[in-house]
Amino acid sequence: MSSILFLLKNFIYLPLMISGFLAAVFKTLQAEVKENSLKRTQKRMIKNNQPVGNVTLIVDKSEYELNVYDDLGWYATYPVVFGNSSLEDKKMQGDRNTPEGVYYITSKRIHSKWCRFLLLDYPNAEDVELFQLRKRKGEIPKHARIGGGIGIHGTWPNEDYVVDNYINWTLGCISMKNEDVKELYRFVNPGVKVIIRK
């Protein structure tokens, strides 16, 4: 009888013991993440809150986000909008889709309409190959052109609300709020990698 009581008692307390152990592990991980985050913040403060080392931009179309990473990890997230609400990959000129793939910023300039403009190297070799394949398969017309001039830019003056309201308005570019694109412009230079994914 005592062995049955012992088993029942342990059966009842076992989940509590496991949850206590998991809570302790989680608390330790939280403390470690917080400490690492503090170290990154301190290093950035030394660098005037600028990204440290190499910068990479990751654009998540389905999340409507542009994330900035540097040598210390995540640096910042900005809301963005695109061309077409379908969020499909760019197939040809005029489809208003934002391309997906790995790109590099080739140049940047102050823009008279959209505040700042960071030009991407679209179309690259992979885009050309995929474009020709789609033509051969009949997915796009034979007379279609691949297009170009894709970049990251701001909005029309006083129209940041398009980003706040997730209004996809561009011809395939990535659009940010003007203050955000000014901030990005300060530390992103030609050669920075931009990964665009759905």
Descriptive tags:
L,D-transpeptidase catalytic domain-like, 8-stranded mixed beta barrel, 8 strands, 2 domains, 36% helix, 198 residues, 4 helices, alpha+beta
Describe this structure in words.
- The chain is α+β, with helices and mostly antiparallel strands and 198 residues long.
- It folds into two domains: 49 residues; 142 residues, L,D-transpeptidase catalytic domain-like (Beta Barrel).
- The protein is built from four helices and eight strands, in the order αβββββαβαβαβ.
- The chain has an eight-stranded mixed beta barrel with strand order 1-2-3-7-6-5-4-8.
- The longest helix is centred in the N-terminal third of the chain and has 45 residues.
- The model has no long low-confidence stretch (mean pLDDT 86).
- CATH homologous superfamily assignment of the largest domain: L,D-transpeptidase catalytic domain-like
How many DSSP-defined strands?
Answer: 8
Question: Main β-sheet, in a few words?
Answer: 8 strands, mixed, barrel
Share of helical residues: 25-40%
CATH topology of the largest domain: L,D-transpeptidase catalytic domain-like
- Write the element-wise H/E pattern from the N-terminal end onward: HEEEEEHEHEHE
List low-confidence stretches. none
- CATH secondary-structure class of the largest domain: Mainly Beta
Helix/strand-derived category reads: alpha+beta
* Intertermini distance: 61 Å
* Total domain modules: 2
Total of helices: 4
Estimate the strand proportion: 15-25%
Principal-axis shape equals globular
